[in-house]
Design brief:
Strands 1, 2, 3 and 4 form a 4-stranded antiparallel sheet that branches. The protein contains 1 helix and 4 strands; from the N terminus they run αββββ. About 20% of the residues lie in helices and about 35% in strands. The chain has a domain of about 60 residues.
């Protein structure tokens, strides 16, 4: 029991800092592998960032995701592309 406290203390300190250290590109779409529940979807992803001069820098991409009847996951990712005006 005495050894649990240091582990809990370390996890409590490190876990929140790990969450804030993740870059925006680490965000992902998670699909649970459930057999017998197939689906497919097209996901439009748009990310925006405010530049130092106040202008918006917008990136976009399309992702195809799906799950077959056996629960296998398909997640097709493409690179983010800047939106041209």
């Amino acid at each position: 029991m005495a050894r649990r406290f240091p582990l809990v203390a370390v996890c409590t300190i490190l876990f929140p800092s790990a969450l804030t250290a993740l870059p925006a590109s680490a965000q992902d779409i998670f699909v649970t592998p459930i057999p017998g529940a197939p689906f497919s979807a097209v996901v439009n992803v748009e990310r925006s960032r405010v530049q130092r001069d106040g202008s918006m820098f917008i990136l976009t991409t399309v992702r195809n995701i799906g799950r077959d009847s056996l629960g296998r996951i398909h997640n097709e990712a493409r690179s983010l592309q800047p939106i041209t005006s």
